[in-house]
Amino acid sequence: MTIILEHICKSYQGVTVLNDFNAQIEDDRCYAFIGPEGCGKSTILKIFMGDLKPDSGKVSRMGDYKYPTLQSAFVSSEDDLRPRKNAIWHITKADRTIKKENAMEELSLFFTADEMKLPSRELTTAQKQLVKIVRAMFLHADFIVLDEPFLGMDESQRLMARDYILKKRGRRPLLIASRTEDDLEFARKIQM
Questions:
Q1: pTM of the prediction?
Q2: Which parts of the chain register pLDDT below 50?
Q3: Can you say whether residue 63 is alpha, beta or left, with left for phi > 0 and alpha for psi between -120 and 50 degrees?
Q4: What is the secondary structure of 120-167 as a DSSP string?
Q5: Residue 146: Cβ within 10 Å count
Q6: What is the pLDDT of residue 63?
Q7: pLDDT (tens digit per residue) in 26-49
Q8: CATH code of the region 2-191
Q9: Is 46 helix (H, G, I), strand (E, B) or coil?
Q10: Which of 3, 77, 86, 145 has its CA 20 to 30 A from that of 46?
Q11: In the chain, where the domains are located
Q12: What is 50-107 written as a DSSP string?
């Protein structure tokens, strides 16, 4: 299946962020939308997922797909974790079929047993992003969409997170928005 974004335009309060943007997203591929803050990276991800409508242009689907809508596992650059809940809670509440033991096993790749029990308000920005990445990889989604997933991470954390994402994504298309190309050599780069 291929998703085609054609002639996408989007403005906010009279400021154009996307002007005649075109892309083709194919199965089993990785894409990195690269550019500075405010260039439309997050906007194109939201349009792709159907969370935002473009002012003009269209998003279409080619190929076989048995369901009328597509599901995306999304990691936001925003702090959307509940401040009083811990990492384990955030994983198991994402899908009621996720067992606590499985969540703890995946989280243990990045956290100590004590860290995964801390309320999210006590986690660093990097740790919060790691919780959201692990949560996204558990979801049964058609696409993985990551908006600035490596925010606040040092090089070691970034490489571990990248390797984890690539291992867990399977054949699902992966879309990443990033300000830099650091550690994104696996992806087709789309300059914004």
A1: 0.86
A2: none
A3: left
A4: GGGS-HHHHHHHHHHHHHHS--SEEEEESTTTT--HHHHHHHHHHHHH
A5: 25
A6: 57
A7: 888 999 999 999 899 999 999 988
A8: 3.40.50.300
A9: helix
A10: 86
A11: 2-191
A12: TSS--SEEEEEEES--SSSS--EEEE-SS--S-TTSBHHHHHHTT-TT--HHHHHHHH
CA distance 126 to 58: 35
Distance from C-alpha of 73 to C-alpha of 176, rounded to nearest angstrom: 12
pLDDT at 145: 94
pLDDT digits over 132-161, tens only? 999 999 998 888 999 999 989 999 999 999
Predicted confidence at residue 69, as pLDDT, reads: 64
pLDDT at 53: 92
The predicted structure's pLDDT at residue 177: 95
Closest C-alpha to 125, from 108, 144, 150: 150
Task: For residues 81 and 123, give the distance between their C-alpha atoms in angstroms, rounded to a whole number.
Answer: 10
The three-state secondary structure class of 3 is strand
Name the residue type at position 184. L
Provide the b/e sequence for 14-53 (b: ≥16 CB within 10 Å).
Answer: eeebbeebebebeeeebbbbbbeeebbbbbbbbbbbeeee
Non-local CB neighbours of 139 within 8 Å, separated by 6+ positions:
71, 73, 94, 95
- State the number of CA atoms in the 13 A half-sphere of 68 facing the CB: 0
- Provide the residue type at 154 as one letter: D
